[in-house]
Amino acid sequence: MYIKLFKFDIKNGLLKNKVLLSASLIIPIILCIDYIIKVKGITFGQEVTLSFADYYMYIFGGVKEGVVFGMKDYIPSPTTNFIMPIMWSIVFITLFYGTLNYPFNDMSGIGKQILIRTKGRISWWISKCIWNLICCLFFFSIILGVIWIFCLITGAEISGKINVQLLNSVYNTKIEEIDGNNILMPVYMFVLPIIVTSAISIMQMTISLFIKPIFSFLVTVVLLVFSAYVLSPCLIGNFLILIRFDYIVANGLNFYMGIFVSIFVIVCSIIIGVLKFRHYDIINKE
After folding, report:
1. What is d(CA 243, CA 149) in angstroms, rounded to the nearest whole number?
2. Domain annotation covers residue 108
3. How far is residue 93's CA from residue 5's CA, in Å, rounded to a whole number?
4. DSSP string of 201-227?
5. Model confidence over 87-114: pLDDT tens digits?
6. Which domain, by its residues, includes 18?
7. Model pTM above 0.85
8. Of the candidates 122, 147, 211, 252, which lies 20 to 30 Å from 114 by C-alpha distance?
9. Of the candidates 90, 100, 106, 75, the residue with the CA atom closest to the CA atom of residue 34
10. How far apart are CA 245 and CA 117, in angstroms?
11. Which keywords are on file for this protein (predicted)?
12. How many domains does the chain have?
């Protein structure tokens, strides 16, 4: 049962998912090219050795260029500006939009027939939770693959070394905020975003059981916006802003806290989803 559902979800919800497929390719290509152009502008055309981590940080760093914004909440003032990190937002908004509709489209199609015939509601729900995780894993895998190709093309190092000077220039970060003794991006930072996005995606699907999917998507967007403006581990989107972590800035976000919050959200979402879906009206579902 689980295997058949899993294969069906991968075929129809992932391999035929035009939003995820196109976004995971087009967005990193555009951002990598933009980063190369930006670096040339910053260095005035001088030779600079980039790394895999530099590209990765540019895509997922999460702070808009020209904004001095480190490990503190944004407080509006005449001398302090904060611009929503558009590039960072687009990456994750497209991912969560890509995982929004399939579960409920499936429920209105073949999935409804499977549910009525087998009465395997829990199996169906769990399979969709796994599908969300696989989609997030796929999304990041493609992006990492694009970055790797750009590294080969541009001669960048395949390493986790972060160029601190470029980091400060691109993000306009105060140099004292950077922990100069720890400029290697830990391997776990390539894993955490997958776990965090899986948690948010599953949570979004669970919320869609109570309100229309488009409104649950708006909830997700609002969560991302608040996460950009407010530094708090209670806002799970903070753990998608890589420049806020303790391997870059002192007293930054902690990897283990990100794992804990993500697992908590996943477990709660699955349990709430199971309880709700057991009595969910799939017959009259539009």
Report:
1. 23
2. yes
3. 26
4. HHHHHHHTTTS-HHHHHHHHHHHHHHH
5. 899 999 999 999 999 998 877 766 667 6
6. 2-277
7. yes
8. 211
9. 90
10. 48
11. Membrane, Transmembrane, Transmembrane helix
12. 1
